[in-house]
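Narrative of activities, Objective 1.

The group set out to show that a structural description can be obtained from nothing but a protein's sequence at a throughput compatible with the screening campaign. Below is one input-output pair from the validation batch, recorded exactly as produced.
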Amino acid sequence: MSESPDEASRSTLVGLLKRRSLQIGEFTLASGQISHYYVDARPTTMSAEGLQMIGPLGVTMIAEAGWHAASVGGLTLGADPVAYAIAMASRNNPPVMDAFTVRKQPKGHGTGRRIEGCFMAASQVIVVEDVITTGKSALTAAQAVEEEGGRVVGVLAVVDRMEGGREAIEAAGYPVLTMVTVRDLGVVESRPDSGN
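Output recorded for this entry:
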């Protein structure tokens, strides 16, 4: 039995992430935790090949979930290429979604905006992320969107580290879709509550 186009795209994305983004060793994460692996998704999400895969796969997943949004975006820097890839791919598979970026801090000059690009108050948006670990980046972006009058219909990530981030985002009321997990990458991290 042959793979569906989505399964083939995911398999190709897993291979690319393994080659470009997965590092084995000892790393201190932003949360302060020590991990025996690190997923720096940017060499994948910012590559031409990665952008070409992530965009259509994201558009398909959004359509299959029944999510409807005017734009996609998230907290800079990790979310930016993911949002741009999905926005571009949506031109070939409408409805078209534009992209936006959430700054970590509001701009100190000009308009002083926290959200840049194609975002309008009262619009429905999808928050995107490259890697979900604790969920903090996606939740920060969602909070910024809602403070500006937008509505978040869901969160889509390229990689889920399976360390509680997905659950934290869902507990805040947002459904979550992920393209791959660390299990798909062949990495299984023991969690403090797992007994391992």
